[in-house]
Design goal:
Helix content is about 45%, strand content about 5%. It is mainly alpha-helical. A hairpin with a 3-residue loop joins strand 2 and strand 3. Helix 9 runs antiparallel to helix 10 and helix 10 packs across helix 11. It is extended, with a radius of gyration of 33 Å.
């Protein structure tokens, strides 16, 4: 007797992954019809019987439809705080719904905040880290820097503390040097004088702290280019686009020569802007350009003469 091999039904697939057709072994308990399962329920295609509903959702249990809704996962970790932003914060005066608390509850919260503040830092190094990162955040806010540069500066301050570079130096000076070093590494047109004006220490300490960071941590800080200061000067002096384009051409031509060797890039940029303004017929004085670039008038004239000699 020859027994023939039975062929099974071909499994049909579709492009819709939410709809899955089960095998013929699973049939409707009422009419033995065809059963299909989608992302929500299992139904019979013949009689419409709902066999199963409210399937398990394997996705996240929260959804945020706007920026005001808070997710249960909490805020993301950040390098801008000593505890990565996961410490407990005890509020004041109101509950989660904005209702006023009783006097007894407010006194209890005040005692909890006091004890939480006392046990906030486990060591003196952690307290210094919190103070330094707070100074970095303050400087980044005062100088209107981006969050990316702020976080990089905080990470640079952490590296400086881990390498024991804070010993014998001011925390404020290391914080200001971290801001300036991060801007140098990202080629952000920020002068050291701008950081010193916003910092709480004198210029010599910030300069020495930056030299220490650059030497000990080997910062990948490329030399500043005069072209990076052109947009800042054009915006400060409120000049038009033609002057900016011509100043960029002069700065790029100067970068291809030995003019920029040993010269302050902001001074070269100021000379390029002044020459471009003169060629376009703009009425602007040398002292105005030099003041915007924070260089002396003598430096501006020297760089102007060297540019004209190229």
């Amino acid at each position: 007797m020859v027994r023939t091999m039975t062929t099974r039904d071909i499994y049909e697939t579709g492009f819709d992954e939410d709809v899955q057709t089960e095998s013929s072994a699973t049939q409707c308990p009422e009419c033995d019809g065809r059963v299909t399962t989608n992302a929500v329920e299992t139904i019979c295609e013949d009689c419409g019987l709902v066999i199963e509903e409210q399937r398990i959702d394997h996705g996240p249990e929260w959804r945020a439809y706007d920026a005001d809704e808070r997710e249960r996962t909490g805020a993301p970790l950040t390098t801008a705080r000593h505890d990565r932003g996961i410490s407990t914060e005890i509020g004041h005066g109101t509950d989660a719904h904005g209702n006023e608390l009783s006097g007894q509850k407010r006194r209890q919260l005040a005692r909890m905040r006091r004890e939480q503040t006392r046990g906030r830092w486990r060591s003196k190094a952690e307290r210094n880290l919190a103070h330094g990162l707070g100074e970095v955040r303050r400087l980044a806010s005062a100088l209107e820097l981006s969050e990316s540069i702020r976080d990089q500066a905080c990470q640079l301050f952490r590296s400086a503390q881990s390498e024991d570079l804070l010993r014998g130096r001011s925390i404020e000076a290391i914080g200001a040097a971290s801001i300036y070093g991060t801007c140098r590494c990202n080629q952000h047109p920020l002068l050291l004088e701008d950081v010193v004006d916003a910092a709480r220490v004198e210029s010599a300490r910030v300069t020495n702290a930056y030299r220490t960071l650059n030497r000990e941590l080997e910062l990948p800080a490329p030399p500043m280019r005069p072209t990076s200061f052109i947009p800042r000067l054009i915006s400060a002096l409120e000049l038009d686009h033609d002057i900016r384009r011509r100043a960029n051409e002069l700065a790029e031509r100067a970068e291809g020569t030995t003019l920029t060797n040993g010269c302050q890039p902001s001074g070269v940029a100021a000379a390029c802007v002044y020459l471009a303004a003169q060629e376009q017929g703009a009425l602007i004085t040398q002292s105005t350009v030099a003041s915007a670039a924070e260089v002396s008038v003598v430096t501006l004239r020297s760089r102007r003469d060297e540019l004209q000699a190229i």
